[in-house]
């Protein structure tokens, strides 16, 4: 079972206490954007086999959204961090690069 | 290819079964093929088969990173139905179901299609209205389904508890010609015929890169070297995004784990397929006597072919409430497959931004039932650049908002 640490509560919880929210760091496009931008924002998703950044909500805890970096094959969790973060923290990216030398980066 | 028949069985019985030939060849890849199909699961092999049978294209290779039929084709609950709400879905799923009817004869391979009947239980007022609507839609689409009341349900499935406690059964959407088939045999039967038509099925050969020139596909790089092709069909379910990434485009797909499990074998107990979508569990009995049970997908991206334990628990709990008789059964084994989920829960059969590359993916949690129809439509799309069955399942629908919204129609909490 997947376990994640809520960055707000500081507690490590099982996935039954969490709600998954899909890809993290999506850039939102609204009125005035092109069709392609809007389509990409709405539907095109990163679906990597390996390092992935995603949103989770501590549904049966503090109720807040947070972000997590996780490997979709091994389920290894590299770290969790606040949802009020426009891109992954540099320290976390460095940790992942160290653990996954072939990783192409988060973008 | 030597035909399988009762005479062949008799002949072999007299000579210690020494004359059976291999069902398919395992050749080394050639330098170039007209069409390369990536993925030797049911959908990929069916695509190749109908390319040869209907369109006369036989210079085809089917490349598979593992062994054929070893992915989701061998990991599903083998349910076949076509009681969908939307017209394009009904068309392609009914095409598939009707091809299943005589697939054993067509392939000269017993796929054990068993149209034993399929019930979708209505366990709330809303579900009841929804299914009645589906029955009306199906009748207009030429798909034979009907609404049956709770007493008829009880007659068909005596072990069903129709009185609740939480979710009493109010009736069911009944498709008499729905059922199951032997999943491995579907892949093996198609593979045998493809091989007999001179197609190369290349197993243990992983695609590592897609080569393009001037926006057009020219070949693939594999663990068995570079292979050139005129057209490339990507039919790899859970790994569609990985292949699309190699080809340089992105798909509206997320890969999730879906699990199934079977009980210990018991005597014949239930001779129809029952789906309880409100509580999200479905069950049928295999020929070996095991109860085959499936539930919901995980909510997060996953490539590990393992799912979360609580889904097994939730589904089994729900089914015990529905079928109290199974409460003391031991579960024998459990497995997971990686399914490719689209936003509207409908498949993608489409041309792509790269000329010559076609994708057939997004079947999500319900691909097995679609195999013959999917292969038929995909073959037409690859051969002629257009298939009426596939027309509305193109990638364009995400740009235009022309969704085929089966996540609502299925009534399942996907």
pLDDT averaged over residues of chain B = 94
| Strand residue content of chain B | 25-35%
In terms of DSSP E residues, the strand content of chain A is 25-35%
Largest interface: A-B, 25 and 23 residues
Tell me the name of the CATH class of the largest domain in chain B: Alpha Beta
Q: What gyration radius of chain B follows from the Cα positions, in whole Å?
A: 21 Å
Structural class of chain B: alpha/beta
Q: What is the CATH topology assignment of chain A?
A: Folate-binding fold
Secondary-structure content class of chain A: alpha+beta
- Number of E-state strands of chain A: 6
Computed CA radius of gyration of chain A, to the nearest angstrom: 15 Å
Please provide a written account of the structure.
- Chain A: InterPro entries: SoxD, SoxD_sf.
- Chain A: GO terms for molecular function: sarcosine oxidase activity.
- Chain A: It comes from Rhodobacter maris.
- Chain A: This is Heterotetrameric sarcosine oxidase delta subunit.
- Chain A: One of its GO terms (biological process) is tetrahydrofolate metabolic process.
- The complex is a heterodimer of chains A (107) and B (414).
- Chain A contains two helices and six strands; from the N terminus they run βββαβββα.
- By secondary structure, chain A is α+β, with helices and mostly antiparallel strands.
- Chain A has a single domain, classed as Folate-binding superfamily (Folate-binding fold).
- In chain A, the strands form two sheets. In chain A, strands 3-4-5-6 form a four-stranded antiparallel beta sheet, with helices on one face. Chain A has a two-stranded antiparallel sheet with strand order 1-2.
- Chain A is globular, with a radius of gyration of 15 Å.
- Chain B has 414 residues and is an alpha/beta fold.
- Chain B has two domains: 219 residues, FAD/NAD(P)-binding domain; 148 residues, D-Amino Acid Oxidase, subunit A, domain 2 (D-Amino Acid Oxidase, Chain A, domain 2), CATH 3.30.9.10.
- In chain B, 30% of the residues lie in helices and 25% in strands.
- In chain B, β1, α2 and β2 form a beta-alpha-beta unit.
- The longest helix of chain B is centred in the N-terminal third of the chain and has 17 residues.
- The termini of chain B are far apart.
- Chains A and B meet through β3 and α1 of A and α8 and β12 of B.
